[in-house]
Amino acid sequence: MADQTPPVPALALFALDGKNVLITGATRGIGRASAIALAQAGATLCIVSRSPEPAVLNDLPGSGHTHVVCDLGQLEAVKSLFDAALAKMGGQIHVLVNCAGIQRRAPSVDFAEQDWDDVINTNLKTVWLLCQAAGRHMVPLRRGHIINFASLLTFQGGLTVPAYASAKGAVGQLTKALSNEWSQHNVHVNAIAPGYIVTDMNERLLADPARLRQISERIPAGRWGTPEDIAGPVVFLSSAASQYVNGEILVVDGGWMGR
């Protein structure tokens, strides 16, 4: 049975003091904004990066933050990532944030098999491996939060992104499947589905005047999102404020899906 929401003042529900967070994709964009917000809420972070000295560590408030070096496209390296992070964080990880992802664009009839494999491995299999490792750690301890990053393409097919749409659709189902098993053990598995956000992953769309106009006109909020628009939801799903939120795909899209 899952724990009840603690009877504390509302703002205290969002505090992450004493919580250790493992986060991927934190060196830029949405992941970077999320990492900063988690540290501002009191968490201690372990950043996953390809670089031996990720610059984002210098932007995090608080102390004790660390990092592990890993190429998330190399599955054998990913299999030992969680244990490496545990060792760096004193044997305790309370929150896993799977934010890293890659994109490949091409007409489906021309889509390269290697591009398919790269996207599926990084955006889906790596997420699965880290979720599984986190579950093995968190379920026996009866506590934990896992946040996966889905997409609007968890629900829609998109254009010229068959691998990305397939991976993100599967991330949504994986989130629900793990939540069905682990919610009773007080491990909360949820996902965030960002809308159109101004990041380097979307630079080709932003540089295409026709697509930019088409997309922008359909967003009820009247603007594209920024990475900071995702930071609050990440803190929410990492905290006791979301104690009764399980298997949810939280859409943060300026109203796109409601259109």
Automatic annotation (TrEMBL):
GO terms for molecular function: oxidoreductase activity, acting on the CH-OH group of donors, NAD or NADP as acceptor. Keywords: NADP, Oxidoreductase. Belongs to the short-chain dehydrogenases/reductases (SDR) family. The keyword Glycosyltransferase does not apply. The keyword Ligase does not apply. SMART domains: PKS_KR (SM00822). SUPFAM superfamilies: NAD(P)-binding Rossmann-fold domains. The lineage of its organism: Eukaryota, Fungi, Dikarya, Basidiomycota, Agaricomycotina. This is Ketoreductase domain-containing protein. It holds the Pfam family adh_short_C2. Residues 19-185 form the Ketoreductase domain.
